[in-house]
Amino acid sequence: MKAKVSLKEIVGTKIIYAILLVCYYWMWARRDWQNHYEVIQHMIIIFTIIFLQSRYTVSTNRAKKKKTSRQFKSCAE
């Protein structure tokens, strides 16, 4: 599948993945514990779920759009 994806979107997504990886490492590597760490962990988990869900919907919408455009092209011919 060759969908048109901008360079800005690819780089931005990789940066967010790297930040999430650093945050997860930070959560696992903590030796001390503060009460606000739990809030930070929950915010990171919620952001990850929302981000991955949005990436999934964008990719499925592109696939549906591409499939629909192919159907219209075959009907026109």
Description:
The chain starts with 6 loop residues before the first helix and ends with a helix. Helix 1 runs antiparallel to helix 2 (36-76). The mean pLDDT is 82. It is built from two helices and no strands. With 77 residues, it is mostly helical. The longest helix is centred in the C-terminal third of the chain and has 41 residues, at 36-76. It is elongated. The chain has helices at 7-29, 36-76.
Structural class: mainly alpha
Can you count the beta strands? 0
Largest sheet: none
Radius of gyration: 19 Å
Low-pLDDT ranges: none
Amino-to-carboxy terminus distance? 22 Å
Shape: elongated
Please report the number of helical segments: 2
Instruction: Give the helix proportion (percent range).
Output: over 70%
Element string (H = helix, E = strand): HH
Can you give me a brief rundown of this structure?
This protein has 77 residues and is mainly alpha-helical. Helix content is 83%, strand content 0%. It has two helices and no strands.
What secondary-structure arrangement, pairings included, does this model have?
Layout: H1 7-29, H2 36-76
Features:
single chain, 77 residues, mainly alpha, 2 helices
